[in-house]
Amino acid sequence: MDLTNCTRVTQFILLGFPHTWGINFALFVIILLLYILSIVGNGLIIVLVKTDSRLQKPMYFFLSNLSFLDIWYTTAVVPKMLANLLSRKTIICFYCCMAQSYFYFLFGITEFYIITVMSFDRYVAICQPLRYMTIMTPRLCLQLTFAIWFGGFCTILLQTVLVVNLPFCSSNLVNHFYCDIGPMLKIAGGDSNLIEVLGFLIAVAVILGSLLLTVISYIFIISTILRIPSASGQRKAFSTCASHLTVVSILYGAVLFMYLRPSVMHSSFRHNKVVSVVNTVITPVLNPFIYTIRNNEFKESLQKALGKKAVSFPKL
């Protein structure tokens, strides 16, 4: 397309879900409640880890980073989605859309990195328990955290710059409830093959790369646990990893479905919207419960913070 004859759009219309007032209002209430639970749950983890000396450990340090990511990951999308559910004018400005897309993928990619580092932390704790504190030093934890955030910032930057410079002229209808790159490429003019290939390579490197490292860590972890002579010792070791494995399964299952495809131009985004709701709304709510519901240290820390004698959780 000739950019000299192209009048670029200044705003996009997010098509979201079919607009039916009763359904949209019900979705608004449900998603708002889940969003509040996500903010409160993840915020509580951050506060407890920061204020309780018993939680000043590498595992909880990385968990608080994951909670921080979850808060901003869902905040990048949910407030605008809530506003659109109650409005027929589902408009977002061009650069607002690009910013939303960048931060959504920045926090999402960084979450894969933190999940991988958390699996490495569990590997060291179980396979090298006597060397754990000498390996997972505060300095190394800070260095890993910096590398995680810097890696997330750089990974998605080039693709975002390329998308911003595409000629969006013929249509401004984005078939999603947020500015996902796939639906935007579908309405963009010009040649987007390079961006598609780059996006696919990023998905392979980040998703499959981090998954492979996580799986390798857990192969060593499981083999070490199976060599523990006592059944109670095995159960205790497995319990420290169960929450992380649950989060890994939910997270990777959703994103493998949405993004690990060689082409987005001829894809239908109907199913992606449903999976995206799970990924952006439900998963950030589940993470605090998954990580803390069977964790005695967190229970005791919450008990201390609330000034109560006991905090009970329902058994799963």
How would you describe this structure to a colleague?
The chain has helices at 21-51, 58-75, 78-85, 94-127, 132-135, 138-164, 181-187, 193-226, 231-259, 270-292, 296-306, and strands spanning 11-14, 91-93, 173-174. By secondary structure, it is an all-alpha fold. It has one domain (11-302): Rhodopsin 7-helix transmembrane proteins (Rhopdopsin 7-helix transmembrane proteins). Helix 2 runs antiparallel to helix 10 (270-292), helix 6 (138-164) runs antiparallel to helix 8 (193-226) and helix 9 runs antiparallel to helix 10 (270-292). Mean pLDDT is 84; it is low at 309-316. InterPro entries: GPCR_Rhodpsn (IPR000276), GPCR_Rhodpsn_7TM (IPR017452), Olfact_rcpt (IPR000725), Olfact_rcpt_6C-like (IPR047132). Keywords: Cell membrane, G-protein coupled receptor, Membrane, Olfaction, Receptor, Sensory transduction, Transducer, Transmembrane, Transmembrane helix. It is found in: Cell membrane.
In short, what is this structure?
The chain has 316 residues and is an all-alpha fold. It has helices spanning 21-51, 58-75, 78-85, 94-127, 132-135, 138-164, 181-187, 193-226, 231-259, 270-292, 296-306, and strands at 11-14, 91-93, 173-174.
| Gyration radius from CA atoms, angstroms | 21 Å
What's the average pLDDT?
A: 84
From the spread of the alpha carbons, the general shape counts as globular
Q: Could you give me the name of the CATH homologous superfamily? A: Rhodopsin 7-helix transmembrane proteins
Work out the count of structural domains: 1
Counting DSSP E segments of at least 2 residues, the number of strands comes to 3
Structural class: mainly alpha
N-to-C span: 57 Å
Please count the helical segments. Answer: 11
Class, according to the CATH hierarchy?
Mainly Alpha
Strands in their spatial order, largest beta sheet: 2-1-3
Q: In terms of per-residue confidence, which ranges show pLDDT below 50 for 5 or more consecutive residues?
A: 309-316
Query: What's the CATH architecture?
Result: Up-down Bundle
Largest sheet: 3 strands, mixed
β-sheet strand percentage: under 5%
- Helical content, roughly? over 70%
Order of helices and strands: EHHHEHHHEHHHHH
CATH topology: Rhopdopsin 7-helix transmembrane proteins
